[in-house]
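Journal club prep — side note

Before the paper discussion, L.F. wants everyone to see what a predicted structure for a comparable chain looks like in token form. Sequence:
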Amino acid sequence: MILSTHAIVGGAIASLFPSDPLNAAVFGFASHFAIDAIPHWDYPLRSISVGKGADNQRLRLSQAVMIDVMCVGTDACAGLALASWLFATNASAWVITLGALSAMVPDPLQLAHSIYPREPLVTVQRFHGWIHSKRKLGWKLGLSSQIVFAAAVSALTETVR
């Protein structure tokens, strides 16, 4: 899943726990793995490798790295903005942000593992790779299905709250 989808789901979950940041963070983090098990599309990265056998220890600043950082950063910021817009109130804004960030953090942990392959990153990466869907969708179906999924989670959350 793209980071925006993870952030929206994490924000939706956090909105169910507006005064409980620990549950918002834990369930947001767990949601990442649950929805990565669904077949989906991920945008390609030009220079950064993630997943099994990735090694970014020799990664150096380059145009390709900057493009990847801009792409990932735009995706993450859009997700945070959408999660805040959809779910935050004045009282719960920081908890929604925490839930959204917690839902996105397993993906940067993959990069951290590829640079520093030590525990607990090894175990998190092993689980992430195991649960992640092996079936990849094309970008049109993959992106549209993520939009529909995020909208459905948002609508469901509104009915539960």
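L.F.'s comment for the group: Residues 3-160 form one domain. Keep this in mind when we get to the figures.
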